Amino acid sequence: MELMPAAPTDRMLPFRHPRTLCRYLLPILLLLACSTARAQIFDRIDVDTREDEAEFVIRFVPKILYLRHVPLNEGREVRVFLRLNETGLNESDLMQEALQAKGNDRVPDVRALFPELVNGMLVTFSRRTSFAVKPGADNRSIVITVPLPPAAKPVVPPMPVAAPAAPPSPAPAPPAIPAVSPAAIVAEPATKAEEPRPSPVPPFVPVAPAASVPFDPAVPPALTPAEVEARAAAYMEEARRALSGKETAVAINRLNRILGLPPSSQTEAAQALIGEAREQNGEILKARAEYELYLKLFPNGPAAARIRERLAALPKGELAVRAARPLPKEAGPAEWLFSGSLSAYYYTGKSQIDTLVPPPPGMLTFNRDTLSMVDQRSLISSVNLNARRRDAFSDTRIVFRDTDHRNYLNPDRSYNRVYSAYVDHNDRQLGYYARLGRQNPNGLGVLERFDGVQAGYNLNPQWRLNAVYGDAVEFLSPFKKTFYGASVDLLPQAGRPGLSLYAVDQTLDGLANRRAVGAEARYFDGRASAFGMLDYDVLYKDVNIFMAQGNYLDEAGNNYFAVLDHRRAPSLSLTNALLAAPGLSVREMVAMQGLDQVRAQAKALAATSNMFSIGLTHPLSERWQVGADYRLAAISATQPVVAVIPLGVIGTCLGTIDVINNTCRFDTASQQGSGNNHVVTFQAIGNSLFVANAVGVGNLSLIKARTYNGQSLGLTYMLPIGENWRIDANLRYYTQMDDDGTRQTRLSPSLKIGYQWRNSLHWEGEIGREASKSSGPLRNDNIKRDYLFTGIRWDFR
């Protein structure tokens, strides 16, 4: 049932048949309760600016699977269709979220919205551009690469005019040395802190001019030998000081300036030192080029022996490429940038349920019951604040996200929740990062949102150590879960796999709750990406999670994807055992039965979820794409559990009293498994359909389950009107036939209108109806629900 985000209701009208009320009102209330899930989907947008392109990495909190995108490679907007690979997350249950990143004169601004259309994310650029879209190196990101216009060339001010000096005595010219540039040896982008320089030559030897040259004010005059020596000495002092302080980019800049001057007494030392500076900076290929150039120019120089040793110790071939870790391109003074959004949406809905029950045998009167009620009236407000300070060496971010839910039907159910509140600092030069505050899980075996600290340190360009400590954040949970963990990462490089090995230990109210070891593997290159995870809990001696997913893009533009997911649902935890003894706490159960027995009950009551999916997307043209995928999902049955608690300890027995043994017996029956559910889905996406920039999406799903067969059809059309208005029309139809002869149908039309003002203030409103019918041998039901929501969102930066 596709509904807007909703709040549950407690207002009910009198009903003549309580059993009918429970049977048909309960699903609606449960659905509305599920719709209140305010799960955070977006994490952040990272922007990596390179020499001629920028890479936008849109990071998500849940695991995702990239499916397809339109248009294929150019436009001001791109819609990325994806699937949330987390249990309990449905697009219809989510509020729309927005992220944005500020650009500059070369990099466009970017804004992302999710959800949008059907399983879609809308990414908007501040200008029309070409782009390439692919899944990220992990299973929580989408990467969009855009080309950049050429950077403006810096204007070099003319050097001051010096008074002409008397020509020195003639001296023989030095032997000619071929100019060899490191760029000619290996092509590798230079850091922005560098300046171009001519190839170095041997130490300075004065050369007498052949004849006097008339002064030309358009040509900077040559420096005198004394001026060259003074500048070179000053630059060398700054370079050595920068190297001792590990400011390698500054050192490279100063050494380049020395080598850009006429030959001096510092030239040979600068050429020797710049190779070491590049090696420390992780630029292995450039370091090799600088060392080789030194040996070519100064084969018998004072540093030749040392340079040969360092050159021989450098990684070779592909290892050199993997070891390369150039600093980012940003330079100049850092400044704080602020962005975020404020939003408020009002929701209301009304339902009507008509039930017709056939008369008992021998009677002729049908029993009709009708229930009408306002099931929703709420206001949901959100705050999303971001601050960022970034320069060539460090990146500091402050993030705060909060949601306030006012339930006007039942004020006691109103709440305010802070979903993120952290400070994140990444130092590229020293090779460490740290994040402190309320944050979402990001590897290391952490499965829940938590309050704490996560940090890492790069041992070298390939290996990193990480650690985490915190308390899990579970809203409305009375338990305290404290954990700590560590991991070692082999960082992924393009065309080379990455690996993370972790161990994590968690306590629940002081009791050992989770002790897991695991691994995460990643791979990405220009066409393929893959992610795998294995989580094994040594306390329960069982696999908690095993999953693998991958994408492959061939030369024809076809995208192939596959997912395999095996996990415990819910995850292995002592809290699962609470079903075995209602009314008791975990500590009480442990005190009465022992920790091992409670842990065995928790494992028995955790079902196993298995899911496999495979599919592809094929571009028919620049305007049309088609896709198909197959999904197989199953949830196993749980095992029956028996808990026996002494009556003298438990007090009131909610189970069966054994008067002979004076105990209370709880028998928890096994939960029936779902069986195999098969779903085949076909999707067609049309871009610029009928009108420029309009998008149409059609979905057809065929469902085969253990006790029913179903079909689902969805049609969505987004029509832009001018630059500011848009209309979304949706029509969804679902039909299902149960094995007991019950037939269900559901028709859900909706219309959504949106307006944006100055690309920052957004208003939208939606009206819709859901009409469902259920007919079977015992009863016929008609349910109608009308809803409306409207609200505004202010994006600022």
Task: Provide the descriptors you would attach to this structure in a database record.
disordered N terminus; 11 helices; 797 residues; alpha+beta; five-stranded antiparallel β-sheet; globular; 15% helix; 22-stranded antiparallel beta barrel
- Please compute the radius of gyration using only Cα atoms: 33 Å
**Low-confidence segments, ≥5 residues, pLDDT <50?**
1-37, 153-196, 198-220, 318-332
- Give the % helix: 10-25%
Distance between the termini: 37 Å
Mean pLDDT level: 81
The biggest sheet amounts to: 22 strands, antiparallel, barrel
β-sheet strand percentage? over 45%
In total, the number of strands is 34
Please state the structural category: alpha+beta
Separate helix tally? 11
Global outline: globular
Molecular structure report:
- There is one protein chain.
- This protein starts with 17 loop residues before the first helix and ends with a strand.
- It has a 22-stranded antiparallel beta barrel. Strands 3-4-7-6-5 form a five-stranded antiparallel β-sheet, with no helix packed on it. The chain has a four-stranded antiparallel β-sheet with strand order 1-2-9-8, with no helix packed on it.
- Helix 4 runs antiparallel to helix 5.
- The chain is of the alpha+beta class and 797 residues long.
